């Protein structure tokens, strides 16, 4: 079996935000970190520095230690190969990155033209540094595309706008989930799973998390045994909503029909023509609003 060596870089900023690339191939979207194959005559360290310069434009950096080694067997071009990869730590601060030096095939695989330091990555960076490589998030199964099986390792990440660089806040401050109380959190989680096309990421008796497969802030649902649903519109002396979700749609009628099929109820009071207020199965109001700017 042929062997292929690779070097990858865990690129962290001063708040432990990790550099991620967002890829899109064959309809699949996933994330990876910088890195690639070791060329003939290169050391692992030389390959890591070269790949970092090619993929991020960073050249004057200090390569840190190798913090993890991974071995795997994959199909590449119809041939089984054994891959060995070393992961090196690099820390940066106050820098700008560019993908101008990437090869065309690398840019073609990226979703957009940007490199980002993921806003949700402090927890990812700390997870990796604490030995969290034992269970990395994998790219989706490529199905009919076995040659893509050794694409860069996907990690949990969050969408970014083309051309932007975003960073996490100081001390790892980030919004991780928006929590909704309910008498039956699993029932409510399954409703939003259907409504949004998201997936249940974790499930406990009194706590369920639903996440967007593309990343971002998640929704969590927690048991409230004396739960009282809010009243819409608000009335004095009655339970008022403390927050609600704003959900964009391209087709308001179609979105309303979908919400109803998922289990939502259309509220009696509708204050705007381009917005429809619904109630979820626990009685939380949420709005479907029509994005007229893109229409």
What is the CA-based Rg, rounded? 23 Å
Please, what is the average pLDDT? 76
CATH architecture of the largest domain: Alpha-Beta Complex
CATH topology (fold) name of the largest domain = Nucleoside Triphosphate Pyrophosphohydrolase
| Total domain count | 3
CATH C-level class of the largest domain is Alpha Beta
Q: How far do the termini sit from each other?
A: 54 Å
Unreliable residue runs: 105-168
CATH superfamily of the largest domain: Nucleoside Triphosphate Pyrophosphohydrolase
Query: How many helices?
Result: 5
The largest sheet has its strands arranged as: 4-1-6-5
| Helical percentage | 10-25%
Largest sheet: 4 strands, mixed
Taken as a percent bin, the fraction of beta residues is 25-35%
Q: What is the SS-derived class?
A: alpha+beta
Describe the SSE topology.
Blueprint lengths: L1 E11 L6 E7 L2 E5 L2 E3 L6 H13 L9 E11 L2 E13 L12 H6 L6 E2 L4 H8 L47 E6 L2 H12 L2 E6 L2 E5 L6 E6 L21 E5 L2 H11 L2 E2 L8 E5 L5 E6 L5
Parallel strand pairs: 1-6, 8-11, 12-15
Antiparallel strand pairs: 1-4, 2-3, 2-7, 5-6, 9-10, 10-11, 13-14, 14-15
């Amino acid at each position: 079996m042929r062997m292929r060596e690779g070097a990858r870089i865990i690129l962290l900023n001063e708040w432990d935000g990790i550099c991620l690339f967002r890829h899109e191939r064959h309809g699949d979207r996933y994330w990876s970190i910088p890195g690639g194959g070791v060329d003939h005559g290169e050391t692992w360290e030389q390959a890591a520095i070269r790949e970092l310069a090619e993929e991020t434009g960073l050249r004057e950096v200090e390569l840190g230690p190798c913090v993890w080694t991974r071995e795997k067997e994959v199909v590449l071009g119809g041939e089984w190969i054994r891959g060995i990869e070393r992961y090196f730590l690099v820390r940066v601060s106050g820098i700008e990155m560019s993908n101008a030096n990437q090869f065309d095939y690398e840019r073609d695989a990226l979703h957009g033209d940007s490199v980002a330091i993921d806003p949700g990555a402090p927890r990812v960076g700390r997870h990796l540094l604490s030995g969290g490589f034992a269970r990395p998030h994998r790219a989706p199964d490529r199905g009919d595309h076995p040659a893509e099986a050794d694409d860069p390792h996907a990690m949990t990440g969050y969408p970014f706008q083309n051309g932007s660089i975003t960073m996490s806040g100081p001390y790892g401050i980030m919004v991780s989930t928006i929590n909704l109380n309910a008498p039956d959190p699993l029932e409510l989680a399954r409703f939003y799973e259907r409504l949004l096309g998201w997936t249940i990421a974790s499930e406990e008796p009194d706590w369920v998390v639903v996440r967007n497969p593309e990343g971002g802030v998640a929704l969590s649902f927690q048991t409230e045994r004396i739960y009282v649903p809010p009243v819409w519109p608000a009335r004095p002396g009655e339970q008022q909503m403390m927050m609600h979700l704003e959900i964009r749609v391209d087709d308001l009628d179609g979105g309303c029909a979908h919400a109803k099929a998922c289990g939502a109820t259309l509220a009696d009071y509708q204050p705007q023509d381009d917005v429809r207020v619904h109630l979820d199965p626990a009685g939380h109001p949420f709005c479907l609003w029509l994005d007229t700017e893109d229409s």
